């Protein structure tokens, strides 16, 4: 038993205890304390866990929660971090809590969501059994070059770990799929088949237009959204790899669920290689999240029934859509943080079979991104296709005025756009306009979400409505 390790664990556990006593949350400090006292702490205590990691730009949290549901359905004893603690120190704190003072693990599996920028650093300490990479999209502040540096950082992180780690990669994302080239690790690709979906709109903001191998412009046999789809390069031949797990049919796409038919290759499943399942989440992006989690579950050897059950029993509560019922109306909160995610939310709203009553809460604090020019990359213009359904659009937050300007320039009827800075008044107005049985959508950036959540909690006397 290493003395430094024991001291580091005790000090860190004591910090957790003190923070708890002071009623202060905080997942960063205990991890930092542990590292300060013993730089090898994480590597040392994590080595006895079976580790599953999830990284990528969009969908990390939802994918992680669906994998968690798969673990639950298999009665696996696991630990997992919350999305707010997906950097090195937060992950260290999680492991400290999950071991005894001598460093003995109290659980079998660790399911870790890792920020994509921190992934390279985290893999210096962790050796996962499987890694899911969801996708690479340009975040609000990134320049195009930064997207490739994120990809390269994840790539070096993967090179650092041994060849026994299974890679679960998105076949439809040319950047994500490229991680499976020239690696000795087992690779499982998942994707949406072109028979299942063909985007009709040509309105694709493409983050990765050029071949990662030779810089030639990609052609597409089908588009899903963003740069996802059946990409191929006519110059060097790099193309979307065949997927081991594919969505081959979207049988139903409701406003809160999808029913999909999946096909598995024989490497993942020996017999009966098609199954139909339901996901209690709307939208194409959640089909990807579900496929990623399912591919990981299959790669780890869990039975297809348990995976299908997990997809069907998964509740979006912790995901990015949160609902609260107020009398006979519903308020739905959906986080928006980058153009691609925002576009998906808008397409989802446009499909809603009811009048649209929506508030946009835009802050520009550090956690939201201080440069709000990304709003100009969001396709608000698509709302013009459903303009007759739009009842009212409210803008708010620190940059509520800028948001109103953005909506105005998208050509929407300005008489329907209002700026209401006071959140109490905003909630009241939004609900007043919502018909019985209807839904008031609130789309906040990160810090605006924290503010509106705490007001909703107090106002309607809720404990934790997002659980
Ligand atoms: Zn090429």
Based on CA inertia axes, which overall geometry fits?
Answer: globular
Cα separation of the termini? 40 Å
| Small-molecule components bound | zinc ion
CATH class of the largest domain: Alpha Beta
Class by SSE composition: alpha/beta
Radius of gyration using CA atoms only: 23 Å
Report the CATH superfamily of the largest domain: Mur-like, catalytic domain
Instruction: Indicate the low-confidence ranges by residue numbers.
Output: none
The CATH architecture of the largest domain is 3-Layer(aba) Sandwich
User: How many individual domains?
Assistant: 2
Q: Please work out how many helical segments DSSP would assign.
A: 14
Question: How many strand elements?
Answer: 17
Descriptors:
ATP binding; carbon-nitrogen ligase activity on lipid II; cell shape; Lipid II isoglutaminyl synthase (glutamine-hydrolyzing) subunit MurT; MurT_C; UDP-N-acetylmuramoyl-L-alanine:D-glutamate ligase; 9-stranded mixed sheet; 2 domains; single chain; binds zinc ion; 34% helix; 467 residues; alpha/beta
């Amino acid at each position: 038993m290493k003395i430094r390790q024991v001291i580091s664990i005790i000090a860190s556990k004591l910090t957790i205890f003190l923070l708890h006593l002071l009623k202060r949350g905080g997942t960063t400090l205990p991890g930092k304390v542990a590292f300060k006292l013993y730089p090898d702490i994480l590597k040392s205590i994590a080595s006895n866990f079976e580790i599953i990691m999830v990284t990528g730009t969009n969908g990390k949290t939802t994918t992680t929660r669906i994998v968690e549901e798969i673990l639950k359905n298999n009665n696996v004893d696991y630990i997992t971090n919350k999305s707010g603690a997906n950097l090195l120190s937060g992950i260290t704190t999680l492991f400290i809590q999950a071991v005894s003072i001598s460093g003995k693990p109290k659980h079998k599996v660790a399911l870790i969501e890792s920020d994509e920028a921190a992934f390279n650093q985290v893999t210096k300490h962790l050796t996962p059994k499987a890694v899911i990479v969801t996708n690479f999209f340009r975040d609000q502040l990134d320049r195009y070059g930064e997207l490739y540096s994120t990809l390269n950082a994840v790539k070096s992180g993967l090179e650092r770990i041994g060849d026994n780690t299974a890679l679960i990669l998105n076949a439809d994302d040319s950047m994500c799929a490229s991680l499976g080239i020239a690696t000795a690790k087992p690779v499982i690709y998942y994707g949406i088949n072109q028979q299942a979906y063909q985007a009709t709109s040509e309105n694709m903001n493409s983050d990765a237009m050029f071949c990662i191998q030779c810089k030639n412009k990609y052609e597409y046999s089908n588009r899903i959204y963003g740069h996802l789809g059946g990409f191929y390069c006519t110059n060097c031949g790099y193309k979307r790899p065949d997927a081991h797990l594919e969505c081959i049919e979207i049988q139903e796409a409701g406003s809160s669920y999808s029913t999909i038919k999946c096909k598995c290759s024989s490497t993942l499943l020996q017999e009966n290689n098609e199954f139909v399942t339901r996901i209690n989440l709307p939208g194409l992006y959640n089909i990807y999240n579900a496929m990623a989690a399912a591919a990981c579950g299959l790669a780890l050897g869990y039975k297809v029934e348990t995976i299908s059950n997990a997809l069907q029993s998964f509740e979006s509560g912790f995901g990015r859509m949160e609902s609260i019922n107020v009398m006979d109306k519903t308020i739905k909160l959906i986080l928006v943080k980058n153009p691609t995610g925002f576009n998906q939310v808008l397409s989802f709203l446009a499909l809603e079979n009811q009048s649209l009553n929506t508030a946009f809460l835009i802050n520009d604090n550090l956690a939201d991104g201080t440069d709000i020019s990304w709003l100009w990359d969001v396709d608000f213009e698509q709302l013009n296709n459903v303009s007759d359904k739009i009842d009212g659009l409210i803008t708010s937050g620190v940059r509520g005025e800028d948001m109103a300007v953005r909506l105005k320039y998208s050509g929407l009827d300005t008489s329907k756009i209002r700026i209401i800075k006071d959140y109490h008044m905003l909630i009241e107005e939004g609900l007043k306009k919502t018909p019985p049985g209807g839904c008031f959508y609130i789309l906040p950036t990160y810090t605006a979400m924290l503010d509106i959540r705490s007001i909703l909690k107090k106002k309607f006397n809720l404990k934790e409505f997002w659980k």
